[in-house]
Structure formats: C-alpha cells, structure tokens
C-alpha cells in the first residue's frame, strides 16, 4: 500500500515554498514533494537549516515533506551534476529519505560522451546516497537517456545498487510502454514511488487524474499488487493560474482511485 498521496510544489511555482506547502496541506494532501527547481530552492541557494525549517513548517501545516526532487532539464551539464549531488546531501534535512532525479536529454547539441558523463555522475550520487541513507528514484521520461522500462532495467542491472530504484511517472510510461500495468509488474519492487497524472492518448501533457485517457484504476491496482509502498504524488505543472483548483480536483480523484473496490 502506498505511503500516502502527495502533490508537487512546482505547480505552485508562483508562490513561495512556504505558501505552496501551506496550500497543499490545507487542501488535505498527506505529503508534498519539494521540487528543487522551485524558485528560491535551487540546491546551491539553500542549506540544511533551510530544509529543516521547511520540514517543520510542513508539519505545522498538517502535512509532511514526502519526497524531494531535482530535475535539471534546463541546467547546463556541469551545474546539473553539481546540483544533483548537492540535492542528495540536502534530502535527509527535509526529513525524508527519497530523492527523485532523471537523466539528461541526448541530441545534436549534447556532448558525444553524455551517456558516460551520466553514468559517472550517477555513480557519485549513489555513493553519497548510500552514505546518507537516501534512496535515489530515477524517473524514466520519453526522449531522455533513460526513456522507458528497457533503459531503466539496463541501468539498474549495470549500476547494481539497492539504493537506486524507479520513480514511475504513469503518463510517461503510457507513452513509452504498450501496457502500463505490465510495465509496473516488470519493474516490481524496484519502484520506490510514482508520479500520477492523466494524459490525452499519445500526448505528453499532464492533466488532472480522471480528465484524460489513462485507465488509472488499473494502474493504481498494479502498483498495489507489486507492493509499492512509496508515495503516489500528483504531478501537474501547467496549473500556475489556478493551482488550488487543480490540486483539489486531483485529490478528489486520487481518493476515489485508491478507495477499496
């Protein structure tokens, strides 16, 4: 059974981190995912004391920091590697044990040794994560080096670290796999947590759960069947105009999806 239902702070990027956490807590979420792309929370701009302060603020707001994430999609590679390692070091100060990361995007403008750089840097992150008791949950995403199940499974086998697992974004999986529940069964206990959203068929656009074309009930059942005991976190980012409305609708949908059938 999942640890709880969370919501990512990046949907509230026009608000301060405290206001984002407060609003998410007031709506009724069990936890929040603190995104280190949130303005003011870039890894080099905060220290452990700031993280601990946010954890206390979350508790006072009736919720908790469930996970931390750093997706360096817009960062130059050198900065990305520095921020990712610093994110590992900051995660325990937030009072949680899971950091969600992703892989860089290959392409004509990427360096020829991108895959080798990524492997080296991931090994450094895993070494530090093992020292600190942090679980590193890598999120496959269409178009990135780790695109879907095939690349993820190869990476798990190659790195050989129990500290490395998967953050399964169900919309991403729907775009890269032919059968999402089967993909979940294939990953099994490597799944540390899940990002939940709906999408239109064949389109990489995150929607409030229940407003797209995914069979989310079968997906949630598959996560439960493999014993996924991490967080199910709603992942919406194009909601800055009305984040509370999207968060409320998503929580209602998630409660319906996770209620016993």
What secondary-structure arrangement, pairings included, does this model have?
Elements: E1 4-8, H1 17-27, E2 31-35, H2 48-60, E3 65-69, H3 77-90, E4 98-101, H4 114-132, E5 135-138, H5 149-159, E6 164-169, H6 170-176, H7 180-187, E7 191-196, H8 216-225, E8 231-234, H9 243-258
Parallel strand pairs: 1-2, 1-8, 2-3, 3-4, 4-5, 5-6, 6-7, 7-8
Strand content: 5-15%
The largest sheet has its strands arranged as: 1-2-3-4-5-6-7-8
Order of helices and strands: EHEHEHEHEHEHHEHEH
Structural class: alpha/beta
Shape: globular
Number of beta strands: 8
CATH superfamily: Divalent-metal-dependent TIM barrel enzymes
**Largest β sheet strand count, sense and barrel closure:** 8 strands, parallel, barrel
CATH architecture: Alpha-Beta Barrel
- Kindly report how far apart the N and C termini lie: 14 Å
Q: Explain this structure to me?
A:
There is one protein chain. By secondary structure, the protein is an alpha/beta fold. It has a single domain (4-258), classed as Alpha-Beta Barrel (TIM Barrel), CATH 3.20.20.150. Helices cover 42% and strands 15% of the residues. It has nine helices and eight strands. An eight-stranded parallel barrel has the order 1-2-3-4-5-6-7-8, surrounded by seven helices. Helix 3 links the parallel strand 3 (65-69) and strand 4 (98-101). Helix 3 (77-90) packs parallel to helix 4 and helix 7 (180-187) runs parallel beside helix 8. The mean pLDDT is 97.
């Amino acid at each position: 059974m999942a640890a709880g239902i969370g919501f990512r702070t990046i949907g509230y990027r026009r608000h301060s981190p405290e206001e984002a956490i407060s609003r998410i807590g007031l709506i009724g979420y069990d936890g929040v995912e603190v995104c280190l792309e949130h303005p003011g929370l870039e890894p080099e701009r905060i220290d452990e004391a700031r993280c601990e302060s946010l954890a206390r603020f979350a508790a006072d707001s009736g919720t908790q920091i469930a996970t931390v994430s750093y997706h360096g999609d817009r960062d130059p590679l050198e900065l990305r590697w520095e921020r990712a390692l610093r994110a590992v070091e900051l995660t325990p100060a937030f009072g949680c044990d899971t950091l969600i990361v992703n892989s860089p995007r290959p392409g004509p403008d990427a360096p020829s040794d991108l895959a080798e750089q990524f492997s080296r840097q991931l090994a450094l992150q895993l070494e530090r994560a093992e020292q600190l008791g942090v679980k590193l949950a890598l999120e496959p995403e269409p178009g990135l080096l780790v695109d879907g199940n095939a690349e993820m499974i190869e990476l798990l086998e190659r790195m050989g670290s129990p500290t490395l697992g998967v953050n399964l974004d169900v919309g991403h999986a729907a775009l890269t796999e032919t059968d999402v529940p089967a993909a979940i069964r294939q990953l099994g206990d490597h799944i540390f947590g899940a990002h939940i959203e709906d999408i239109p068929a064949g389109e990489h656009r995150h929607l409030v759960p229940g407003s797209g074309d995914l069979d989310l009930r079968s997906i949630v059942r598959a996560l439960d069947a493999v014993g996924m005991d991490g967080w199910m976190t709603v992942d919406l980012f194009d909601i800055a105009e009305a984040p509370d409305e999207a968060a409320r609708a998503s929580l209602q949908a998630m409660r319906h999806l996770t209620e016993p059938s």
